[in-house]
Amino acid sequence: MLRLQRIGKAKQPTYRLIVSEKARDTQAGSLEILGNYNPVNKEKKLELKIDRVKYWLSVGAQPSNTVHNLLLKNSIISDGKKRRSVFLSQARKKKIEEAKKKDEAPKA
Fold it and tell me: What's the total number of domains in the chain?
């Protein structure tokens, strides 16, 4: 599986794009490091070994939802749509709706 491994200091995340087994923790070692992603910069810099990414995809490695979206955005893969990578629980959705109702309430 192609996944992101968090590295970097507190409040300044940097990620590595790695190949690892799905059941294994991202910090437990990887088969190969394919590149870096820095979301803190304004340009959100993504550096990849494109030929190696395409190789791993060709032999059946599945990207995580976030990695899939990054690859689509940078035109490395072209098939499919963006995948949903963040899921909200029912309780969280309810809190968000209540907050919207409070903001929309008329003020006297």
Answer: 1
Q: How many CA atoms lie within 13 A of 46 on its CB side?
A: 14
CB atoms within 10 A of CB 43: 6
C-beta separation of 80 from 66 below 8 A: no
Residue 90 has φ and ψ, to the nearest 5°, of -60, -40
> Contact, 18 vs 1, CB < 8 A?
no
- Can you tell me whether residue 37 is helix, strand or coil? strand
Specify the CATH number for the domain of residue 86: 3.30.1320.10
CB 55 within 8 A of CB 61: no
56, 36 in Cβ contact below 8 A? no
Q: CB–CB of 3/26 below 8 Å?
A: yes
Confidence band of 101 (pLDDT split at 50, 70, 90)? confident
Model confidence pLDDT, tens digit, residues 1-18: 999 999 989 999 999 999
- Contact call for residues 37 and 6 (beta carbons, < 8 A): no
